[in-house]
Write a structure and sequence with these properties.
By secondary structure, the chain is an alpha/beta fold. It is built from eleven helices and 14 strands. The radius of gyration is 22 Å and the shape is globular.
Length: 301
């Protein structure tokens, strides 16, 4: 087991941030930790890395007790933080060399790895470039490459594709799949449900410091939510929503859109025929539907 967490708790004064978290991540899998802002995801990662002291609970990271043996465990781990913290005073290659020294690696060994790391990040030929000259996507890919400088067994990633355009996001997805093929274990947090559904073999959904659901994306969707969705919007959607409540087992409204969930949505679609002021989209249920059902549609700050 790459990571085993049992009964993990953390409080700041009277505020309980984690309220008894249990997690297990097998070697070689991609595990996603999802939840609204403030759910406890980043705190969980920091505790697992030994960067915070838990209030209670047990953590085993790559076979080591954390926080007691956190320093040894971190030598075998890579971390992609939520925000890029590359050193702007150094070139691309210098950022990798300096970071590698934190793991006790010799400069010549790091230099030997740099071409491979830059190829992985799609930054071949950029070794001498200054950080300020890189685009946001390039910086994010370099941060990923930097996390691999010590050839870790396990990679923690906190929202690895936030702020990236679709092209950059898809490139990082491809690179993460490559890491899994090489046998590395990936643990990530993300607000992109499509990302979790594409990459993760298993996910856990957190809210208010607790795990409220855990399993494979497909299994969780099948167990917790109706298989078909019809999204409806347009003039008169409020009045139409009252009619829809008699046609689908679950009907919700978010802003100007009404969501109808059912195993059979033909009655809903039939009722929309001839309603020229209403537009609709029929699609299968996805991980975002599950996430919103379990955590609610209210904004979290």
């Amino acid at each position: 087991m790459s990571l085993a967490v049992k009964g993990l708790r953390k409080s700041y004064g009277a505020v309980e941030v984690l309220a008894g978290v249990d997690l297990e991540v097998a070697a070689g899998e991609c595990f996603g930790l999802l939840g609204p802002n403030g759910a406890g995801k980043t705190t969980t990662l920091k505790l697992c890395l030994g960067l915070l002291e838990p209030g209670a609970g047990e953590i085993r990271l790559l076979g080591y007790d954390v926080p007691a043996q956190a320093r040894i465990a971190r030598q075998r781990v890579g971390v992609v933080p939520q925000f890029d913290n590359l050193d702007p005073d150094f070139t691309v290659a210098e950022n990798l060399v300096v970071y590698g020294r934190y793991f006790g690696l010799k400069d010549r060994d790091i230099q030997a790895r740099i071409p491979q790391l830059l190829e992985f990040a799609g930054l071949s030929g950029r070794s001498d470039a200054r950080i300020q000259t890189l685009s946001g996507g390039m910086k994010r890919r370099l941060t990923l490459a930097r996390a691999l400088v010590n050839d870790p067994k396990l990679l923690f990633m906190d929202e690895p594709t936030t702020g990236l355009d679709p092209q950059a996001r898809h490139l990082i997805w491809e690179r993460l799949r490559r890491l899994r093929q090489e046998g590395k274990t990936l643990i990530l947090t993300t607000h992109f449900m499509e990302e979790a559904e594409r990459l993760c073999s298993r996910i856990a959904i957190m809210d208010h410091g607790r795990i409220i659901a855990q399993g494979t994306p497909r299994r969780l969707i099948a167990d917790h939510i109706e298989p078909q969705v019809v999204e409806v919007h347009g003039n008169g959607v409020e009045q139409w929503m009252e009619r829809a409540k008699g046609l689908a087992p679950r009907v919700e409204r978010a802003g100007e859109t009404v969501f109808c969930y059912a195993a059979d949505v033909e009655p809903v679609i039939g009722a929309l025929r001839g309603q020229h002021e209403l537009a609709y989209l029929h699609r299968p249920a996805n991980l975002e539907d599950l996430f919103l059902k379990l955590t609610g549609r209210d904004l979290r700050d």
